[in-house]
Design brief:
This protein is 44% helix and 16% strand. With 354 residues, it is of the alpha/beta class. The longest helix is centred in the N-terminal third of the chain and has 23 residues. The structure holds nicotinamide-adenine-dinucleotide (NAD) and 2'deoxy-thymidine-5'-diphospho-alpha-D-glucose (DAU).
Length: 354
Amino acid sequence: MILVTGGAGFIGSNFVIDWLAQSDEPIINLDKLTYAGNLQNLASLEGDSRHVFVRGDIGDAGLVARLLAEHRPRAVLNFAAESHVDRSIHGPEDFIQTNIVGTFHLLEAVRAYWNTLEAEARTAFRFLHVSTDEVYGSLEKDAPAFTETHRYEPNSPYSASKAASDHLVRAYHHTYGLPVLTTNCSNNYGPYHFPEKLIPLVIHNALAGKPLPVYGDGQQIRDWLYVKDHCSAIRRVLEAGRPGETYNIGGWNEKPNIEIVHTVCARLDELQPKADGSSYATQIAFVKDRPGHDRRYAIDASKIERELGWRPAETFDTGIRKTVRWYLANQDWVGAVTSGSYRAWVGKHYEAGQ
Ligand code: NAD
Ligand code: DAU
């Protein structure tokens, strides 16, 4: 079996669902259930004995050690993190605790467990760390896209904390020989994306008749990848990645934020037109910029294609259509998240610390 952390969040829950759709290998899912963890994302797995959910902190070395000893996974995949840049600007402490200190404790528990394995299992074991393109900092307009050897230049407390965790993971390979893999991915979008992030926020606000906040001039560029493609890339890296290596994952799809917002509005105009016939784009509102806002990210994903044969299956056009349709069809999920009622699931479905 495998152990994933942060499997009740956006990417982690998509990963768990996709994994169990393709394989019968069980998953232990360790998640603290912060505001970003939502058990409703995993509702389709209720009663599925292949999925064992445990509420807990990656920084709780005793708990992690017990889980590893009991379940003896062949791999640990670390999705757990504080992930929202704006929150890291308002309050960086949780980012330091989870992304740096938490990853350190997780690595220590994994290292101790790995040392107990027989030679063959030790060689086959993998620790896969899910990271971000933001560790590389901001690119000039015409600069080449980030490769895996690009210098680390994180600019926000979030990206600095992820960069620190990447360095720890690297050090555990270099110093202790732990068979690690690190992935650095661009902006994901798709089902179960918390509506504090740009695309789900725009969909939600548009339907609610609220302003669509675009930071600064809206010309910041991101590379966008459909979340299911990120999950397939992670599965491929786990399967065939070389220990100690890092792999950039991206969608070959650089776009300015304002174009993303216009595209979402156009899809909504098509799928759920406003009663008065106007476009959702009339709700766009330019607002104060994010402090230290990185201007451009771009991922060169040629290494993972060359070495592991992975390329995204979705274009932005197909991915955003699926995403907008998903949000329109899952307004109950959005309502539970935006009202806060999703938190009630924690008590209802699982005992704390189980
Ligand atoms: P998310 O915020 O939606 O989910 C994070 C999950 O981790 C939540 O379920 C939360 O409860 C859990 N968690 C937080 N602190 C924890 C702790 N101390 N112990 C155990 N669980 C904890 O994040 P996401 O967008 O799904 O991102 C997942 C990972 O992918 C993160 O490491 C993030 O840095 C990385 N990443 C995200 C993106 C993106 O576009 N969202 C892109 C590249 C990389
Ligand atoms: O690049 C990968 C990263 O992508 C991940 O590591 C992060 O975990 C993930 O949150 C995401 O970070 P961003 O800061 O790029 O995502 P966000 O959705 O917050 O913002 C996307 C862009 O849109 C960014 O340039 C800021 C801008 N923005 C965001 C919001 C929430 C707006 O213009 N208005 C908004 O209301």
